[in-house]
Design a protein that fits this description.
Residues 221-373 form the Helicase C-terminal domain. One of its GO terms (cellular component) is replisome. This is DNA helicase RecQ. This protein is of the alpha/beta class. It is 50% helix and 10% strand. The chain has 36 helices and 17 strands. The strands form four sheets. Strands 3-4-2-5-6-1-7 form a seven-stranded parallel sheet, sandwiched between helices. It is globular and about 95 Å long. The chain starts with a helix and ends with a helix. Bound molecules: adenosine-5'-diphosphate and magnesium ion. The site of adenosine-5'-diphosphate (ADP) has 13 residues, from α4.
């Protein structure tokens, strides 16, 4: 064919100014030019867009590109129009356009100017567009981010399922599907659903040798670890992914409080704010973006040096995409993930509200992530295996597991037990079931299949119960087992698995990491352990003299817990002082100065090195409810009405209000006291507190209890503390 001779490199240079194709680009483009369906699997940043952009400019007719990312369409269209001599070579249709713009696009298409039309899947389904496009000659269809077709991908979009019927309606033409993530399962789904079973597949290696993978136990001091890590990589660009918007906001605030140039990014922020943040990151006015997964789709910053996962990702597909944003230029890319069993349980719990089928998929994807995190096998090997690629090297030299390898143990016997068990239950069950079976747990499921009556049931009772997960995972990687693609997750024997049963051989494995212990270990109240008794005594003295001078009881100045913490954390300025429990801005300002001076002097005199980690500043994390309560009180809404509005009972409201006041915020509840208490009564209780040397409620009840109710006492105590202590 004449086309074969076409000088594509010349076209590449002519249109895009690039000198040569990247990876498989040329072969992909030729395949499409020849009129064949094409399937492209290329990691993020590999250059997928060009695989449809260039042929669209060469071929007769107009190409339709289906892409879920409305925000990126404009960008891509601008790029194409920027390199074209004529206007209108590329256009897009999506919900953001008004009537006039749509008419303009249609006119350009009808006069044949337009070679490339980007459409959002939900727009394509509109009858109006379908009938319009029927009259247009289509060169081919490109389905970008094709994993959106599959429920097993990390970003399922139901509208993507309707693409094939729409193509049939608009007019048949070759299809090119492109994605950066696809397990066997997702790949099968895509081909089936798009009806391109015979498509030629172009799969580039997914290995990113420059990315370093590490999984750390997520402990209470995660914020400190992250701050420390970022400080060690000062001035470099990085992304921290969190699962919830709330965590994003909080962590970004903590980072900022620690002089790190960071900003939050999530779908709840308005689009102006988001693009502003994105620009600031690209221009390096901001070093670190704290984001939900909404950030990063299509962002092309080549020198992101680290990607941190604050929470366990929901799927390895997502994880791989997100880590893939590090080190695109081939330079350093550190990928650190924090993992805890607790997070896993939380996510599983979270899924319970969803439809059963979706839950099942979600749970299995989550299990894959957990397997990845807990395993001591080379991370690279596991990831590539997950994406259907074999990594041959024994040690990749660039992940935590390869840098600190565990000693291997013999797993031959355990593997034999597993393989025989899987054969016995007819290769029809998933990992959890197999483990229950070999360990001899007669679950309802097992009993209903009468599998507890089989000889192989409980064959592994004598082995360490922790061995089974690693054995099965490593047998999958070694190719003794495979997971079924049709019925995802069912464990099947491979040919070498069957051979192993006949003649077993050594199978060296590494045990999993145990994340459950680390989970609990840091939970204890370590706070007062390191209390400095000399300092504590001096702080108490200072409190006493301060209180006497001001004519208030000592606890009004600072509570005991606050002094204890000061004697542990050594805050030396007002900002640090506000990190101390029970000290808010007001209190710090009012009483803090001499305390900070005392602590600073004490540190100097005794050569006390304040622990590095304690210099991490936190931000006041007022819960949304607390903020609402404060606002309501400012608007003088009756306290019982606030409780009703918040859906809590009155006592709980008082607890909240007390917590607010104790942490140093001034509240004026006089308007409410005027309504519910006599003035003399207020005065009576108030004077009790000014004279008493404790704010303890029990003691107050004993003293005043005959005349006043607990609620009355608490209300006046709030007034008192607010006025005197804050
Ligand atoms: P993907 O969609 O696979 O993540 P893109 O299509 O966005 O990747 O391309 C990533 C980057 O690579 C873009 O900046 C693009 O301009 C660049 N690129 C693509 N093909 C080539 C090429 N042949 N030579 C140089 N740069 C290229
Ligand atoms: Mg792309």
């Amino acid at each position: 064919m004449a086309r074969k001779e076409m000088n594509l490199t010349g076209k590449l240079k002519q249109y895009f100014g690039f000198d040569k194709f990247k990876g498989d680009q040329e072969a992909i483009i030729r395949n499409l030019l020849d009129g064949n369906d094409t399937f492209v699997l290329m990691p993020t940043g590999g250059g997928k867009s060009l695989c449809y952009q260039l042929p669209s400019l060469i071929m007769d007719g107009m190409a339709i590109v289906i892409s879920p990312l409305i925000a990126l369409m404009k960008n891509q269209v601008d790029v194409i129009n920027g390199i074209s001599e004529e206007e209108g070579v590329a256009h897009y249709l999506n919900s953001s356009l008004n009537k006039a713009s749509i008419d303009h696009v249609k006119a350009d298409i009808l006069c044949g100017k337009t070679k490339l039309l980007y459409v959002a899947p939900e727009s394509l389904t509109k009858e109006e567009y379908v009938s319009f496009l029927k009259g247009v000659k289509i060169s081919f269809y490109a389905i970008d981010e094709a994993h959106c077709i599959s429920e097993w991908g990390h970003d399922f979009r139901p509208e993507y399922r309707r693409i094939r019927p729409l193509i049939n309606e608009i007019g048949i033409a070759p299809v090119i599907a492109l994605t950066a993530t696809a397990t066997d399962k997702v790949r099968t789904d895509i081909k089936k659903n798009l009806g391109i079973a015979d498509a030629k597949e172009f799969k580039s290696s997914f290995n990113r040798p420059n990315l370093y993978y590490e999984v750390r136990a997520k402990t209470q001091d995660i914020d400190k670890q992250i701050i420390k890590f970022i400080r060690q990589h000062q001035g470099k660009s990085g992304i921290v992914y969190c699962l919830s918007r709330k965590t994003v906001e909080e962590l970004a605030a903590v980072l900022c409080a620690n002089d790190i140039k960071a900003a939050p990014y999530h779908a709840g922020l308005d689009s102006a704010k988001r693009s502003q943040t994105q620009d600031a990151f690209l221009m390096e006015r901001i070093d670190v973006i704290v984001a939900t997964i909404a950030f990063g789709m299509g962002i092309d910053k080549p020198d992101v040096r680290f990607v941190i996962h604050y929470d366990i990702p929901k799927s390895l597909e997502g994880y791989y995409q997100e880590t893939g944003r590090a080190g695109r230029d081939g330079g350093e890319g550190l990928c650190i993930t924090f993992y805890s069993n607790n997070d896993l349980r939380k996510l599983e719990k979270f899924m319970e509200g969803k439809p059963v089928a979706e839950q099942d998929i979600g749970r299995q994807l989550l299990q894959e992530t957990a397997a990845y995190a807990e395993s001591s096998v080379c991370r690279r090997k596991m990831l590539l295996h997950y994406f259907g690629e074999t990594y041959e090297k024994a040690n990749c030299g660039n992940c935590d597991n390869c840098l600190h390898p565990k000693t291997k143990i013999e797993g031959m016997n355990a593997l034999l037990i597993v393989l025989c068990a899987i054969a016995a239950i007819k290769e029809n069950f998933r990992t959890d079931y197999v483990i229950d079976f070999v360990t001899g747990r007669p679950t309802d499921d097992i009993v209903s299949h009468k599998h507890n009556e089989l000889e192989e049931f409980g064959a592994g009772e004598d082995e360490d119960p922790h061995i089974w997960n690693p054995v099965i995972r490593q047998a999958l990687i070694a190719g003794y087992l495979k997971k079924d693609v049709e019925n995802y997750g069912l464990l099947k024997l491979t040919a070498s698995g069957k051979k192993f049963i006949k003649s077993p051989q050594s199978f060296m494995i590494v045990e999993d990491k145990d994340f459950s212990e680390e989970d609990e270990s840091d939970r204890g109240e370590a706070r007062t352990v390191a209390l400095d008794p000399a300092l504590y005594a001096m702080l108490k003295d200072l409190r006493k003299t301060t209180a006497e001078k001001l004519g208030v009881p000592p606890y009004v100045v600072f509570q005991d817990v606050s002094l204890e913490q000061m004697a542990t954390m050594y805050p030396v300025n007002l900002a640090e002082l506000q990190n101390i429990q029970g000290v808010g801005a007001g209190k710090a300002k009012r009483y803090g100065e001499p305390f900070c001076r005392l602590i600073a002097d004490h540190c100097k005199e005794n050569d006390i090195e304040r622990p590095e980690e304690l210099r991490v500043r936190t931000v006041a994390k007022k819960s949304i409810q607390k903020v609402k309560i404060i606002q309501a009180i400012d608007r003088q809404i009756a306290l019982d009405d606030i409780a009703t509005a918040e859906g809590i009972d009155f006592d709980d409201l008082l607890n909240e209000v007390e917590a607010i006041v104790y942490s140093g915020t001034k509240l004026n509840i006089d308007y409410f006291l005027d309504d519910v208490l006599d003035e003399e009564h207020v005065e009576d209780i108030y004077s009790y507190f000014s004279e008493s040397d404790t704010d303890d409620l029990e003691t107050a009840m004993q003293e005043l209890g005959d005349d006043y109710s607990e609620t009355e006492i608490r209300l006046v105590r709030i007034k008192f503390l607010s006025e005197m202590a804050n």
